[in-house]
């Protein structure tokens, strides 16, 4: 069978949607199409590529080895297609957009998203501010930021759109678990007001576990260095725990479980055209990544 010379982007879009959502029905809802139409698109793509891309079960779909290879190319082609359309539709889009984010999120999730946005809109200048959530909120209310990604807590008045949720864990330096047996648990954290610091101390207080602040630094890099040096343990998002550190077993060390952290996107009421485009792009990309990790 001869392979097709060109692949319809809509077939690739359906394939990526099925992978990201984990099912044909969920992909159909995202694409605003019928489930049978999405199934047909996947069938056509497999026929054009002359290979099976997905293994179907009663509950979810899983990528074949060939599907994993095609997925990376599909994402690249769709991104290039989107960039081309954006440049053609709005070639003169230009201006400054100010966005704030917590340091941990700004140094892990955000750079790739902003880099891809700049590829589509090279004349848009981005100003990124990294601070604690409550400090970012103050800047936002003062009009110093067009938008901000904020860690949402019951005590923090953030009326934004939830875009990310992640499990929080206790973490410490490799082979440093002996410090967990200390009478007062040594904590590594950022200064007040830090959401993770408040989450850690409140959880420990709730179960009657003694604690002390052993190291406090406003820099994520500084806190990670303190963890590696064995100065204490910290609360971190699960995916942000470096490979050379340990996720602490809560049950073994009588540590309280932690509820998930949620990131919300807040925006000013009146946004410029570049800011509106960045808002939509950031929200879409973060939600896409989150869906692919479910």
What tags apply to this protein structure?
single chain, alpha/beta, Arc Repressor Mutant, subunit A, D-Maltodextrin-Binding Protein, domain 2, 5-stranded mixed sheet, 3-stranded antiparallel sheet, 10 helices
Topology:
Elements: H1 9-21, H2 24-31, H3 35-49, E1 54-56, E2 61-63, H4 65-89, E3 95-101, H5 103-106, H6 110-120, E4 124-130, H7 133-141, E5 147-152, E6 161-166, E7 168-173, E8 185-189, H8 195-206, E9 211-216, H9 220-228, E10 233-237, E11 245-247, E12 261-267, H10 273-293
Parallel strand pairs: 3-4, 3-5, 8-9
Antiparallel strand pairs: 1-2, 5-12, 6-12, 7-10, 7-11
What does this structure look like?
This protein is α/β, with parallel strands linked by helices and 294 residues long. It folds into three domains: 9-89, Arc Repressor Mutant, subunit A (Orthogonal Bundle); 95-165 and 262-293, Periplasmic binding protein-like II (D-Maltodextrin-Binding Protein, domain 2); 168-259, D-Maltodextrin-Binding Protein, domain 2. It contains ten helices and twelve strands. The protein has helices at residues 9-21, 24-31, 35-49, 65-89, 103-106, 110-120, 133-141, 195-206, 220-228, 273-293; strands at 54-56, 61-63, 95-101, 124-130, 147-152, 161-166, 168-173, 185-189, 211-216, 233-237, 245-247, 261-267. It has a five-stranded mixed sheet, with helices on both faces. It has a three-stranded antiparallel sheet with strand order 10-7-11. Strand 8 (185-189), helix 8 (195-206) and strand 9 form a beta-alpha-beta unit. Helix 1 packs across helix 3, helix 4 packs across helix 6 and helix 6 crosses helix 10. The protein is globular, with a radius of gyration of 22 Å. The two termini are 36 Å apart.
């Amino acid at each position: 069978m001869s392979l097709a010379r060109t692949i319809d982007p809509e077939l690739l879009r359906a394939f990526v949607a099925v992978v990201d959502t984990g099912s044909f029905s969920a992909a159909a809802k995202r694409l605003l199409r019928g489930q049978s139409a999405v199934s047909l698109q996947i069938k056509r793509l497999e026929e054009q590529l002359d290979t099976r891309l997905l293994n179907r079960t009663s509950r979810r779909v899983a990528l074949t080895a060939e599907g994993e290879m095609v997925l990376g190319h599909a994402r690249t082609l769709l991104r290039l297609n989107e960039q081309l359309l954006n440049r053609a539709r709005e070639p003169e889009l230009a201006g400054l957009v100010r966005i704030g984010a917590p340091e941990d999120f700004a140094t892990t999730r955000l750079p790739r998203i902003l880099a891809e946005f700049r590829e589509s809109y090279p004349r848009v200048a981005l100003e990124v501010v990294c601070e604690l959530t409550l400090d970012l909120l103050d800047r936002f209310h003062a009009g110093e930021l067009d938008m901000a990604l904020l860690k949402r807590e019951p005590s923090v008045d953030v009326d934004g759109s939830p875009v990310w949720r992640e499990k929080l864990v206790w973490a410490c330096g490799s082979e440093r678990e002996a410090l967990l047996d200390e009478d007062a648990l040594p904590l590594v954290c950022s200064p007040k007001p830090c959401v993770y610091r408040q989450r850690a101390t409140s959880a420990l207080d709730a179960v009657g576990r003694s604690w002390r602040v052993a190291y406090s630094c406003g820099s994520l890099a500084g806190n990670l260095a303190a963890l590696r040096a064995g100065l204490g343990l910290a609360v971190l998002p699960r995916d942000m725990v470096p490979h050379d550190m340990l996720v602490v077993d809560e049950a073994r060390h009588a540590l309280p479980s932690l509820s998930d952290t949620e990131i919300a996107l807040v925006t000013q009421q009146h946004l410029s055209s570049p800011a509106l485009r960045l808002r939509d792009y950031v929200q879409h990309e973060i939600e896409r990544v989150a869906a692919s990790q479910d």
